[in-house]
Every structure is written in structure tokens, then in C-alpha cells.
Design brief:
By secondary structure, the protein is an alpha/beta fold. The protein has helices at residues 4-13, 15-24, 28-36, 51-54, 59-69, 75-87, 91-104, 110-116, 122-132, 139-146, 154-165, 193-197, 226-243, 273-284, 306-311, 337-341, 346-352, 380-390, 406-413, 425-432, 451-460; strands at residues 187-190, 205-210, 244-254, 257-259, 269-271, 286-295, 323-331, 363-365, 396-399, 417-422, 447-450. The chain is built from 21 helices and 11 strands. 30% of the residues are buried.
């Protein structure tokens, strides 16, 4: 069997040795293995034997021949690849053809790459864009690429936006990315979260984690219609978007809910809340990042399967709902996460690292928490993971539906600042009771304010 060491030795002997070795092979896997392990090739490497393998019946042989040919910067090699692109019917190989042409960085390939911009496969078009960006600044190249800002594919249009239309040098706030306003730190505000948010400067929060009130499922969340409920959430998350720092995260904990039937002559109604809010979150600028599944023990949820267990009749199957979603979004930006991370001192980055065990999958098995006062309470463990995975020490984290305050207390324990809003005075007062127990809310550090009081303090801080 051919070894990597043997291939390396043959490379030293000259081009003919590799050609002879490959021509001897009858097994496609062996040919691929040799091509995979050729590594760096000098520009004097003879490629005249390769065209035969560009039309090989095995896709992987063609793929690796294309990769190998792309290592040698010659116009005739690029021409071979352009011709192959027209004949090749395998998407993976076509993408590699364009990538290999790009790696050659030949001015003579520009017009051919222009033609590929019209391909129907977005990933092929992206490869052509990458190849053409090498020549960014040349008038005709810029003209062709800028035209793609209106491309149907969102990935393509976002690349063009970042390269030509984003204004990264314009800082819309005088505050450093890692900082937060003193008057927002460790505050709990009684009032409609929309009214509170309108009093807050843009780009204030580093992270928002919340569980919106479920549609008509609790006393504190009654709406005249489902559309009115969705409109309310859209307004809240639009305001939250404005108040979130560039490239930072929104995590929404929700799940489909059931409105019970009014009698045996009527059906219950199930509303897919996470799926119905997703489209307007993305439309307003939140970029979808992940879906995390919060899995609860089956014994902790309402029994829906009981009837089916008795009669086992098809169509009547209703599984117990043991999961909720944590939908993870990032505020739209042309900057990568590395930019966000670099806004912090090294000491903060090091101190904020997640040590010890961490959850490696998107399924989090956490038992729910029960509370006599609030019927839907965050478990501390859920808050802890979100805060540790999506913020740094010293960040300002926000929950527009503060509830019992678990998120704020956990944030403080993890050395973050928090800002909570809550419109129900019952829960606002309930949060105050934690002050008496010498828990994570410290009476000196945490302020409980009504909206009017907050507005006065806000004006006084200017």
C-alpha cells in the first residue's frame, strides 16, 4: 500500500515519478489517497497528465484532481477548469472548480468568473465572489459585485453589503462596547417594558434573555386576539433590537401553547408561538443563530397522553410536551464575533471563560422550578448557562419580563449587571422580598423604581 512517506519521496524524484505511480493505480481510492497527500507543489510541477483524471468516472478523483490542478498557477490550467465547469454535473466538484480558479489569482480569469456569477447555485456564486474580491478596487469588478446587492439569496447580498455598503467606521455611540450606563445597572423597573425601553439609550444591553408571557395562558397575559399578542411581542423585540449593542444576543424562551377547549363539542387550540415570532425577528434584523431545546422530566409536565394510553386509537395521539425552545438570535452586523470579543480587556476575557463542565449539545436537560407566587419561573441553572455562554463579566443583561427576578439574581451572582422590567406590581413587590433574605439582591446595589422615578433618575444622569 502507498504511504505518505513514499509519496513524499517520489515528489523529490521529479514529476514523472508521481505520474507513473498514479497511472499504475486501478483503484479509485488509491488515486484519491495519492492526490490528497501531495501537499505543497512547486510551480514547476508538470500537470500535463492531469486532464485525463478530470473526466474520471469517480467523483472524488475528479474533485482531488481539480484541487491539485489549482495549486499550479497557469493560465492553461484555469482554462481547463473553466471548460470542465461547463461539462461537470456534480455540484461539489463544480464548487471546487471555482475555488481552485480563485486560488490561482489570475487576471485572465476575471471574465470567466463574471459568467459564473449567474449560476443558480448560491454556493458556487459565493466561491466566484471570493475569487473576484482578490481584485476588489478594479472598476469593472466592483461594478459587477455591487450589482449583487439585490441578489435573491440572502447570503450573497449580505457578503456584498459587508464588502461595499457597510459603514463599519461610523461609531453610533460614544460608549465603549464593553461598557454600560451606570443608571441602568441593577435596576428593576415597574412599568410596561415598551414605555421603559423608549427611555433607554440605543445600544445599551449586551444580552437579553426572556420568556414572553404565554398567550392567554396566565392571568397576566390576556389579549383580545392572537394577532394582538404577536403585535405586542413584535414591538417589544423591535425596541430591544435598538437597545442591544452591535452583534450581541437575544435569547427567547418559548414553546407552543394550548388553549383548552370550552366543551367536549369543541377542540382545543394549539398556537406555535416560537415559529410565529421567528419571521418578524429575522425581518427586523435579528440573525438566527441556534435553537436550543430545554428538556424537562416527563413527570413534571401536564399529562396529555392519558386518553391515548387507554384506547390506543390512531389520530388521537397527543404526546406529553416535555420541551421548550431557546431561540438564539444575534443583532445583525457585518462584524464577526471576534470583533465583539476584542472589545474586552484580556483579563475580563480570561475571567469570563467557562470552566469545568459545559453543555456540548443543543438539548439541555433541566428540571423546571415551581413557585407559589409566579406560575412560570426560570430555573437558576437555565439562567446560569445562558449568562455564562453569551456574556462577559461586567456586561449588562436584560429581561423585559422580569417575573420573579431569577435572571437578575443569577446575573449578579455571576458578576454581571442586570436590568429588569415588570408591569405586574405583584411580581415587582415579590422581587423585593428577596432583599430580606440576604440573597443575591443586595439592598444597596439594587434599586426598585416605578417608571416615573426611573425617568427622573435617567434625566438626572445626563
Amino acid at each position: 500500500m502507498t504511504t505518505k512517506e513514499h509519496i513524499s519521496e517520489l515528489k523529490k524524484q521529479g514529476n514523472g515519478a508521481i505520474k507513473t505511480l498514479i497511472n499504475k493505480q486501478k483503484n479509485s481510492k488509491e488515486i484519491v489517497y495519492i492526490l490528497e497527500n501531495l501537499g505543497y507543489l512547486p510551480q514547476t510541477f508538470d500537470t500535463e497528465w492531469m486532464p485525463t483524471y478530470l473526466t474520471h468516472k469517480n467523483k472524488d478523483v475528479r474533485l482531488w484532481t481539480v484541487k491539485t490542478l489549482g495549486k499550479i498557477k497557469k493560465e492553461e490550467n484555469a482554462e481547463l477548469l473553466f471548460n470542465l465547469f461547463e461539462k461537470e454535473n456534480t455540484t461539489e466538484v463544480k464548487r471546487e472548480i471555482v475555488s481552485s480558479i480563485g486560488r490561482m489569482r489570475l487576471n485572465t480569469s476575471v471574465n470567466g468568473l463574471f459568467d459564473i456569477l449567474n449560476d443558480k447555485d448560491p454556493k458556487i456564486v459565493v466561491q466566484a465572489i471570493r475569487a473576484l474580491l482578490v481584485f476588489k478596487g478594479e472598476k469593472e469588478v466592483d461594478k459587477k459585485l455591487k450589482h449583487l446587492i439585490n441578489h435573491k439569496n440572502e447570503m450573497i447580498s449580505s457578503i456584498i453589503y459587508k464588502e461595499y455598503f457597510s459603514k463599519e467606521d461610523i461609531n453610533i455611540t460614544t460608549q465603549k462596547h464593553s461598557e454600560s450606563y451606570e443608571f441602568l445597572r441593577n435596576k428593576v423597573i415597574l412599568g410596561d417594558t415598551r414605555d421603559v425601553l423608549r427611555e433607554i439609550p440605543d445600544e445599551s444591553f449586551h444580552l437579553t434573555f426572556t420568556s414572553p408571557p404565554y398567550y392567554n395562558a396566565r392571568d397576566y397575559s390576556i389579549y383580545e386576539s392572537y394577532q394582538e399578542y404577536l403585535d405586542f411581542l413584535e414591538e417589544v423585540f423591535s425596541l430591544t433590537y435598538q437597545k442591544t449593542k452591535e452583534g450581541r444576543f437575544l435569547i427567547v424562551n418559548t414553546s407552543p401553547i394550548i388553549i383548552p377547549r370550552i366543551s367536549r363539542q369543541h377542540s382545543s387550540k394549539r398556537y406555535p408561538i416560537p415559529f410565529d415570532i421567528h419571521h418578524f425577528l429575522v425581518k427586523m434584523g435579528w440573525e438566527f443563530i441556534d435553537d436550543i431545546i430545554w428538556m424537562k422530566p416527563e413527570s413534571s409536565v401536564k399529562n396529555r397522553i392519558g386518553g391515548f394510553m387507554q384506547h390506543r386509537k390512531p389520530l388521537a395521539y397527543k404526546p406529553n410536551s416535555v420541551t421548550e425552545y431557546l431561540m438564539v438570535y444575534r443583532k445583525k452586523t457585518s462584524k464577526l464575533l471576534d470583533w465583539n470579543m476584542k472589545q474586552y480587556d484580556k483579563s475580563i476575557v480570561d475571567e469570563s471563560k467557562v470552566n469545568g463542565d459545559y453543555e456540548s449539545s443543543n438539548v439541555w436537560q433541566i428540571s423546571p422550578k415551581y413557585d407559589k407566587v409566579h406560575s412560570a419561573v426560570f430555573p437558576v441553572e437555565l439562567c446560569k448557562r445562558v449568562i455564562m455562554y453569551y456574556s462577559y463579566k461586567g456586561d449588562l443583561v436584560f429581561d423585559p419580563f422580569g417575573g420573579s427576578g431569577t435572571f437578575g439574581r443569577t446575573a449578579k451572582d455571576l458578576e454581571r449587571y442586570f436590568f429588569l422590567t415588570e408591569k405586574e406590581s405583584k411580581y415587582f413587590e415579590y422581587m423585593k422580598t428577596f432583599l430580606k433574605k440576604d440573597t443575591l439582591f443586595n439592598e444597596k446595589a439594587t434599586e426598585f423604581l416605578e417608571l416615573s422615578e426611573f425617568i427622573k433618575k435617567r434625566k438626572g444622569s445626563k
